Amino acid sequence: MLKRTALVTAITSTLLATAAQASPLSLKVLGQPAGSGMIAQQKEQPFFESFSEHTGIEANVEYLPVDVAGIPDTDGLRVLRSGLFDIVSLRGPQVSRDEPSILGLDLIGMNTSFEAGRENIDAYSDYVDSRLQERFNAKLLGVWPAGPQIIFCRDEIGGLSDLQGKRVRVGDQSAANFVGGLGATGIAMPFGDVQQSLSRGVIDCAITGPASANSGGWPESTSTVLPIALQLAVNGYAINLDTWNSLTEQQQVELEGAIAELSNDIWGYSEALYEDAMRCNAGESPCEFGTSYSLTEVPVAQEDLDKVAAAVEEVSLPTWASQCNAVADDCEAVWRETVGQKLGL
């Protein structure tokens, strides 16, 4: 009788385990803000809404933009650690306040082109991943750029020197330090508040990518754009480690490969969006993805290019290194061994 009971129990356990494995996964995904632009609308959201098709993993996915979920975009890493969402589309500059190493992917003056950005970001991503695993119970799956961050102003400017005395919306502390060195005041502000703040004169200028500016209607409240790339606004995808460890080895391979493919796709799309948005914002053709405006595009002087290039060593690296080393002794050392060598620092 005991043997029979044990046999029934074993069979039942096996059937339950098999049924559990056969059941589709349930994943909650926290995405980019709904109004942040074409990357979220055309690449990210379709990927997660057709998750099984893209990954080969049977799953029921609930995708929510971070602003629709009512969660501050600065809380992305805390959300991952809590397990409230399984996968989070991290907004790099915003979450870097909780994990400074993320800023090491995109210091002012470090990624002045898409090509340079790919190399520098790849060189430091493994270190950032190790920090997320250690501190936030999260694994970094992919990294991508919103695009070159350039300067939009209400009034006409001729170059970086004209920012002196102005209030400039910035995306992170690295940018705030840079504009501060130019005599401007860097102001952190959620993307959704910028257009109205420009319109009312609360701020004089603001930094973002041209596609995001177009999507957010910034050209309605600005007159001039200075197209000098300060950084690439790096974002990424990360998964809660408990969720990751619950996947089979095959599912992990499929998910990692699919996110890598999505991230790579966004790199190319981001570059195409940048070029198109620059034409749209200036009222030029073809304008395929955005709204046509009539901003004045200021020619970039070599003097300003030199200022941005010098900012890595003179402004952004020293300040960031002191912040990052305070939470991780090897933060700057690893950066210098990887990215720093590529930049000749």
Report on the architecture of this protein.
By secondary structure, the chain is an alpha/beta fold. It folds into two domains: 164 residues, Bacterial extracellular solute-binding protein, family 7 (D-Maltodextrin-Binding Protein, domain 2), CATH 3.40.190.170; 142 residues, Bacterial extracellular solute-binding protein, family 7 (D-Maltodextrin-Binding Protein, domain 2, 3-Layer(aba) Sandwich), CATH 3.40.190. It contains 13 helices and eleven strands. The strands form two sheets. The chain has a six-stranded mixed beta sheet. A five-stranded mixed beta sheet has the order 2-1-3-10-4, with helices on both faces. Strand 6, helix 7 and strand 7 form a beta-alpha-beta unit. It is globular, with a radius of gyration of 22 Å. The N terminus is likely disordered. Keywords: Signal, Transport. This is ABC transporter substrate-binding protein. It holds the Pfam family DctP. Belongs to the bacterial solute-binding protein 7 family.
Name a few traits of the molecule.
single chain, 345 residues, D-Maltodextrin-Binding Protein, domain 2, 51% helix, disordered N terminus, signal, TRAP_DctP_sf, transport, ABC transporter substrate-binding protein
Number of strands: 11
- The fraction of residues in strands falls at 15-25%
Helix content: 40-55%
| Terminal-residue CA separation | 76 Å
> From the alpha-carbon coordinates, what is the Rg to the nearest angstrom?
22 Å
| H and E order | HEHHEHEHHEEEHEHEHEEHHEHH
Derived from helix and strand composition plus strand pairing, the structural class reads alpha/beta
CATH architecture annotation of the largest domain: 3-Layer(aba) Sandwich
User: Mind telling me the CATH class of the largest domain?
Assistant: Alpha Beta
The overall pLDDT average reads 92
Total tally of structural domains: 2
CATH fold-level label of the largest domain? D-Maltodextrin-Binding Protein, domain 2
Low-confidence stretches: 1-21
Tally of separate helices: 13
* Coarse shape: globular
Taking the sheet with the most strands, its summary is: 6 strands, mixed
Task: State the CATH superfamily name of the largest domain.
Answer: Bacterial extracellular solute-binding protein, family 7
If strands are numbered along the chain, what order do they take across the biggest sheet? 7-6-8-5-9-11
InterPro entries: DctP_fam, TRAP_DctP_sf
Protein name: ABC transporter substrate-binding protein
Keywords: Signal, Transport
Pfam families: DctP
